[in-house]
Glutamine-hydrolyzing carbamoyl-phosphate synthase small subunit (Halosquirtibacter laminarini), 361 residues
Amino acid sequence: MHKFRNVKLVLEDGTIFEGKSFGKEKSIAGEVVFYTAMVGYTESLSDPSYKGQILVPTYPMVGNYGIPSADQTEGVEDFYESDRIHASGLVVADYTDDFSHWNAEKSLSDWLIENDVPGITGIDTRALTKILREKGSMKGKIEFDDQPIDFVDPNQDNLAALVSTDDVVTYGSGKHKVVLVDCGVKYNIIRCLLKRDTTVIRVPWNYNFNEIDCDGIFLSNGPGDPVQCEETVNHIKEALKGAKPIMGICLGNQLLGRAAGADTYKLKYGHRSHNQPVLLKGTQRCFITSQNHGYAINQETLPSEWEELFVNVNDGTNEGVRHKTKPFFSTQFHPEASSGPVDTEYLFDEFIENIEKSKAQ
């Protein structure tokens, strides 16, 4: 059982929340963001898109189903979205060490300690979320009295470079060869591709993937400001001159948009949840989606040969783009989910269909 210690969450506007620590007893600073999913803390904490962020689940009880095994299939963990925790810290209302689940092997606190990540419990996360909604995501820090620390803005760094693979890695041996540009890829993207008879070649964020003989290009999710990934955008621009199928997710959507000529901007507090409704443009089809992003494409700046694919029903922001004549498309939400609904996983099938049509020509 973890021995709790006094600790505080400090926001850049001067707001202070006092609570008890779990996880690593270490002061950290980052960007404080909230997400509204009821489950999925394992997947969220291991999602590279949360790099540099202090995560605030709005659901009060956290830790009750523990942390799963590290089983792997084809070199990819079955129950995690990367090989480590990427969030800087965790803020919850009610942490419990008393976990119960058929696949649980350890407590959330033990997992945080292994990954050098602090947590704070006993926080009024409802009040905290109201502040973040009104003022927007802001800098903050989990701070112990004997470990003072300064605020930091993680978005000033190239976060995609920090979470990307350093080497070219190949998964599977399927008939469709897909280059996966890793800007912070979630493992379930790799799983979804492997299920569809592919060979996945995972390359670093700034790798010139145009030099690889492949059937399709996949642009992954990832953290931070897409402006920081100029090298990736330049490689995508080169790819857009051809007709090889391209699919992007989350940061991949923003990078594809920027390569096409559109602008991106920072959202007030982002979309981080399992229940974001998106509308397929030109239809009445609405999907419930899993999301995790703080930036978006300015749809008003899309060139004439591009169009919106999906739009967020809540606030009208862009949720995907596509080329009007070439097999290029992307989504701002996560069709691979994990965690979250799988309503839109069919988009992976459309990507593979584009590859098959391209190979048949």
In short: DSSP finds eight helices and 24 strands in the chain. The mean pLDDT is 97.
